[in-house]
Design goal:
Elements (H helix, E strand, L loop, with lengths): L1 H25 L4 H37 L6 H15 L5 H14 L3 H4 L4 H21 L1 H4 L1 H21 L3 H5 L3 H18 L4 H26 L6 H12 L13 H12 L4 H31 L5
Helix pairs in contact: 1-14, 2-3, 2-11, 2-14, 3-4, 3-14, 6-8, 6-11, 6-12, 11-12, 11-14, 12-13, 13-14
Amino acid sequence: MLRKTLVTLASWLIGILGVVAIIWYYQPQDFVQTLRAIGIGGLLGWVALTLVSRISAAEATVAPLGALGFEMTRPDAFWISWVRTFANQFIPLAGVAVYAHLVRRRVGIPWSQLAALGQPQLLLAAVAIGLVGLAATALNVGRLQASALGLLLLYGSIVVVGFAFASGAHWLIESLPKALSERAAATSKALRTIAKQPNLVAKLVLFHVAAVLLRGGRVWFLFAAAGISLDARELLLVLAVAESALLLNVTPGGLGIREGAVLGGAALIGIPAPVAASVALIDRLLMIAITTLLVAPAFVVLRKPHQR
C-alpha cells in the first residue's frame, strides 16, 4: 500500500514538475490572448471534436462486447469513457480498473472474458498511434530528413508488435522477462479471443485511428487561434508525436508528458516553442474542464439500471 502511494505521489510530482518546467523555460507567449482568440466558435469546435472522438472510441468498447455476446449501449460506453478519463487524472492507468469495473457492472460480463477489453484495448490504441505515426513520417520525409528513419523504425515496431500479439507472438513473449511475459501472454490470449471474430481487430484499430485524428482537429483549432496555419501533413506530424505521449503512462493523464510531446512535434515543423507551449497548456486546461463537467452526469447515468 505504501509503495503504491509513493508511486502515485512520484507520478504527480513528475507531471507537475514537467508542466512547471515548460512554463518557466518557454514562458508561453500570449497565453491569455490565444485563449481569448479561440472565442466561442473555436471553443464549440473543440468541444464538438472532443465529443465525436469519444463516440468513435466508444465503438471500440461496444464492438468487442457484442462479439463476446454482451450488449452495451453506445451512450453507456460514451459515459464510461469520461469516468475512465477522470480516474486517469489522479493515478496513471487507474482508468483501466475503473473501466473494467463499470463495464462488468453494466453488462455482467465474467472477469475471464473482461480480460479481452482491458490491456488489449491499450495495445490496439498504440497500434493506431503507430499507423498515424507511419503515415505522418512518410508524408514528411523531406522535412524530417535524418529523423525520418528513427521515427519509421519506432512507429513500425509498435505496429508490428501489436499485430504480433494479436496472432500469438510466442517467440516475443518467451523473450521477455518473467514479470512481463505473464502479463504479455494474458494480453495476447485476450487479443486472440477478439481476433476470432472476422475483421474485428481491424475495425477496433480503425475506431482508435478515427479518435486520434479527431483529437488532431482539436490541436488544429488551437494553433489556428494562435495564428499558426497548419496544412494536413504538418498537423499529422504534430499529432503523431503528441499522441505518442499516451504510450508513456507514468503521470496522471499524461501531465507534463503530452505537453512536452506537443512541443516536440511543433519543433519538427518550426513552430515557435512559446506558441506551442501555450497551445499545449490550453488544450490541457480545456480537457480538465470538460472532464470535470461531464463526470458528474456520467455517474448519474451509470447509476441507473442498464436497459436491455
